[in-house]
Design brief:
By secondary structure, the protein is mainly beta. It has a single domain, classed as Immunoglobulin-like, CATH 2.60.40.1470. 0% of the residues lie in helices and 70% in strands. The protein is built from no helices and nine strands. Strands 4, 5, 6, 8 and 9 form a five-stranded antiparallel sheet that branches. A four-stranded antiparallel sheet has the order 1-2-3-7, with no helix packed on it. The chain is elongated, with a radius of gyration of 16 Å. The two termini are 19 Å apart. 16% of the residues are buried.
Length: 128
């Protein structure tokens, strides 16, 4: 698990390899990831959007931008957590993801970015 704190918001990520799949006559490697967003600040915040950079060992880069996470824009009060699971397909058994969340602080009404730390995606058979 990797963790990082930005402006009082702690991001923790763990990953799992889910298997291989054939799509469009090509093998893909499926990974899931679980994210926990913990508000360690004194202000309520809302997650409005996300930005992901998904890399694989074949030097492919996929950029994903979107509103909220899994269809939600959670409000996280001080001391509370929001967790969700998602996934991605890679063209190789090794890769990594990183990114950020755009959030708003309800006390100051200011927007801010929260860093999602780089986490590795690695199929167990590729770990030698």
């Amino acid at each position: 698990m990797v963790t990082q704190i930005t402006s009082g918001i702690k991001i923790s990520v763990s990953t799992s390899f889910e298997g291989t799949y054939f799509k469009n006559y090509k093998i893909h490697y499926a990974f899931s990831y679980q994210v926990t967003i913990e508000n360690q600040s004194k202000d309520s915040v809302q997650l409005n959007s996300r930005h992901w950079e998904i890399h694989d060992s074949l030097n492919d880069l996929d950029i994903v931008d979107g509103e909220g996470v899994i269809g939600k824009k959670p409000v996280i009060k001080p001391g509370e957590k929001h967790s969700y699971s998602s996934g991605c397909l890679l063209s190789s058994p090794i890769g990594a993801m990183k990114g950020f969340y755009n959030m708003i602080n309800f006390t100051t009404t200011k927007s801010f970015k929260v860093t999602i730390p780089t986490f590795k995606l690695m199929a167990p058979f590729a770990m030698n």
